[in-house]
Amino acid sequence: MKLLRRILQHPLTAGLSLDDPGTTRLRQRIIQSKPFLRKIYGEWYRMLVRALPAGSGSVLELGSGGGFLKEFHPAAITSELFHLPGIDLVLDGRRLPFAPGSLRAILLLDVLHHIPDVEAFFRAAARAVRLGGRIAMIEPWVTPWSSLVYRHLHHEPFEPEAASWELSPDGPLSGANQALPWILFQRARKTFQKRHPCWTISRIHPFMPFRYLVSGGVGMRSLMPGWSHGAWRGLERLLAPWMDRLAMFAFVLLERRGSDG
Q1: What pLDDT is attached to residue 7?
Q2: pTM: predicted TM-score of the whole model, two decimal places
Q3: What residues have CB less than 8 Å from 210, skipping those under 6 apart?
Q4: Rounded Cα–Cα distance for residues 180 and 192 (Å)
Q5: Phi and psi of 239, rounded to 5°?
Q6: pLDDT at 110 > cutoff 70
Q7: 153 pLDDT above the threshold of 90
Q8: What 3-state class would DSSP assign to 134?
Q9: What is the mean pLDDT of residues 64-77?
Q10: Which residue in 14, 84, 93, 259 has the most C-beta neighbors within 10 A?
């Protein structure tokens, strides 16, 4: 499998450090240059924007560096851990510099599983997000199929059996557990709700078993041309009843209902 990963690795990402800001800029370039992958990101952003609640308050995106959310929601506040062109704020998700109740929503795309202390993030978000506000995210998900792919074809750690919700103190982006969202919202759902009662898990939608894989993502070469995206999307729709065994990602929606005490 290591040999296969080396063969499939995108030539622009070989040997680069994930924690180098230049790598994040390069990842944005790769997304824009791969038609199949760009369509996936567009679909993800539309899902997140559709989840925004009505009413007042700003919308914050965490970990915006490689993406293009503002094409779909121009008023969004984009953020990253380090300065990058086009980013509005440099901040850490564990410490959100916003007035209490000033945010309408926080959006995350492939970010939560990189936050070293997710409990600190949810506490900070509980202060910054108003009642009725939301956290919407798209994250890796654990299924029999995704477990096979993430263990053997992906560079990030994948530890569904992890006892701790905290991540090892690696770099800002290299530290990760792709299984963390599943641990929080599926395996340890009751514990999460007990520790963070103001956040109600209102929706979990597992989806997309194949498209991201065949797109090559940001780290591998494209395996399919952009024009084939519609056919792959149609195949995934046919497989919808089996997403609990096939999905590689999940859309998760949390709603701010009360106080964390």
Answers
A1: 45
A2: 0.91
A3: 232, 235, 236, 248
A4: 12
A5: -90, 5
A6: yes
A7: no
A8: strand
A9: 94
A10: 93
**Residue 200's beta-bridge partner residues?**
255
For residue 163, give the nearest of 175, 177, 153 by alpha carbon: 177
Identity of the residue numbered 33: S
> Which of 12-16, 54-58, 116-120, 131-135 is predicted least confidently?
12-16
Give the DSSP H/E element, type plus range, for residue 203. Answer: strand 199-207
- As a whole number of angstroms, the distance between CA 85 and CA 75 comes to 17
Taking alpha carbons only, the member of 24, 75, 69 closest to residue 47 is 69
Query: Helix, strand or coil for residue 23?
Result: helix
* pLDDT for 207 beyond 80: yes
Instruction: Report the half-sphere exposure of 108 (CA within 13 A, side-chain side).
Output: 26
Q: How far apart are CA 230 and CA 7, in angstroms?
A: 26
Q: pLDDT for 2-37, tens place per residue?
A: 555 554 555 555 555 666 776 777 788 889 889 999
| Cβ neighbour number for residue 99 with a 10 Å cutoff | 9
- Phi, psi (5° rounding) for residue 190? -65, -40
- Which DSSP symbol is given to 168? P
Dist CA 69 CA 61 (whole Å): 8
Domain coordinates in residue numbering, the chain: 2-256
Structure tokens at 55: 């009413």
HSE-up (13 A, CA, CB side) for residue 124: 17
Residue matched to tokens 């290299």: 174
Q: How far apart are CA 62 and CA 139, in angstroms?
A: 13
CATH number of the structural domain 2-256: 3.40.50.150
* Residue 111 amino acid letter: V
